[in-house]
TrEMBL record:
Cited SUPFAM superfamilies: PEBP-like
CDD domains documented for this protein: PEBP_bact_arch (cd00865)
UniProt lineage: Eukaryota, Viridiplantae, Streptophyta, Charophyceae, Charales
One protein family per Pfam: PBP
Protein name: YbhB/YbcL family Raf kinase inhibitor-like protein
């Protein structure tokens, strides 16, 4: 599922009509840059936090939602081979209107309606969310797809992958929508808004800065 359809480019700025099923994020706009704290390049503890997403106008009959986040430009934007999975979440109760940022923790999923949510395995072979960490070969696009389903998925076995979830959702999708974020490795110079690990500029990211002279 999802393969072969056109993925919006960073230049696309059109949003679905307000009355349609859609997903938004307070962290980035469609086609916008994903902030560092939602990537693997953030500076602890602000790193690898799952991004906040909210959905609007659920179709009638929605019994659960699922979320899948993939890098569609892996391993290289100039020659993508396959989607790299960063996040698989399902059995989200439709009474929830959003997943807040930084929800990827055992403590968060043990509270209230979040207890019903299940996390699958990403392509890093672990459950939960792992943020963007692309090679320094250009800008990658990260697509967050949200599915409105006519039933809960329930028990799908151990280590539920994107493919296993997609197979289970077949025939149960009422609607789907997506938002695209972008990210690329950057070499930040020292300053108030940059952090460069000594000797590892390729792993630069947002964090506590080294002050410049006169700053």
């Amino acid at each position: 599922m999802g393969r072969g359809r056109r993925v919006p480019s960073p230049a696309d700025d059109e949003e679905p009509p307000a009355e349609e099923f859609r997903v938004t994020s307070t962290a980035f706009t469609n086609g916008g840059k994903i902030p560092h704290k939602f990537t693997s390049d953030g500076h602890a503890p602000q790193t690898n936090l799952s991004p906040p997403i909210a959905w609007h106008n659920l179709p009638e009959g929605t019994e659960s939602l699922a979320v899948i986040m993939v890098d569609v430009d892996a391993p290289d934007p100039r020659d993508p081979i396959s989607e790299w999975v960063h996040w698989v979440v399902y059995d989200i109760p439709p009474a929830l209107k959003e997943l807040p940022g930084g929800l990827n923790s055992k403590q968060a999923f043990n509270e209230g309606m979040y207890q019903e949510i299940k996390e699958g395995h990403n392509d890093f072979k672990v459950p939960g969310y792992i943020g963007p960490n692309p090679p320094p070969n250009g800008t990658h696009r990260y697509v967050i797809r949200v599915y409105a389903l006519d039933q809960m998925m329930g028990k799908l076995g151990n280590k539920v992958s994107k493919d296993k979830l997609e197979a289970a959702m077949e025939g149960h999708i009422l609607a789907e929508t997506e938002i695209v974020g972008t990210y690329s490795k950057e070499k930040f110079g020292p300053g108030r808004d940059a952090f460069v690990p000594p000797g590892r500029p390729q792993e630069s990211g947002q964090g506590t800065p080294f002050p410049t002279k006169g700053a």
